[in-house]
């Protein structure tokens, strides 16, 4: 099974995308993980390494798809 | 069943998104239609009405999600 990671930060744009886009992914093909980078700051490095520049973003098998625009990743760093 | 429309214009960014994002959508929940606005210019008005500003874009139940950035819709007008 392939891996899908949906990164978000709780912003309104993120929440709408999460509810619709993350929920639209085929559970037969993908194991979907949802990561809130505002609450799990430890995963910022992982997101950056994957190429995530802004949230919300969906990473499918290592390829990043930025969905609309909520916030830059840099805004989430302490 | 809900409706998902994936608008693109054949650009490299669009093709990658089409192959991965459109293909990741749950066929149990969504009927997916793929529209190439470069070849089906007659559907530009429909895309604009849905709120599509750039391609590739995915419209899920009427809500627009712009995925990465390929081209502005205005660039597709004759």
Q: Report the sheet-strand fraction of chain A.
A: 35-45%
How would you write the strand order of the largest sheet of chain A? 2-1-3-4
* Secondary-structure-derived class of chain A: alpha+beta
Main sheet makeup of chain A: 4 strands, mixed
Question: Briefly, what is this?
Answer:
Two copies of one chain form a homodimer. With 78 residues, chain A is α+β, with helices and mostly antiparallel strands. Helix content of chain A is 26%, strand content 40%.
Blueprint (SSEs and pairs):
The structure is a homodimer of 78-residue chains.
Chain A: E1 2-8, H1 12-24, E2 30-36, H2 44-50, E3 54-60, E4 63-72
Parallel strand pairs in A: 1-2
Antiparallel strand pairs in A: 1-3, 3-4
Characterization of this structure:
The structure is a homodimer of 78-residue chains. In chain A, strands 2-1-3-4 form a four-stranded mixed beta sheet, with helices on one face. Chain A is an alpha+beta fold. The longest helix of chain A has 13 residues, at 12-24. Chain A is 26% helix and 40% strand. At the A-B interface, helix 1 and strand 4 of A face helix 1 and strand 4 of B.
């Amino acid at each position: 099974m392939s891996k899908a990671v949906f990164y978000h930060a709780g912003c309104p744009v993120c929440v709408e995308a999460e509810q619709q886009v993350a929920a639209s992914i085929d559970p037969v093909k993908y194991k979907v993980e949802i990561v809130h980078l505002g609450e799990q700051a430890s995963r910022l490095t992982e997101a950056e390494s994957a190429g995530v520049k802004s949230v919300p973003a969906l990473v499918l098998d290592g390829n990043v798809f930025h969905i609309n625009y909520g916030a830059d990743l840099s805004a989430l760093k302490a």
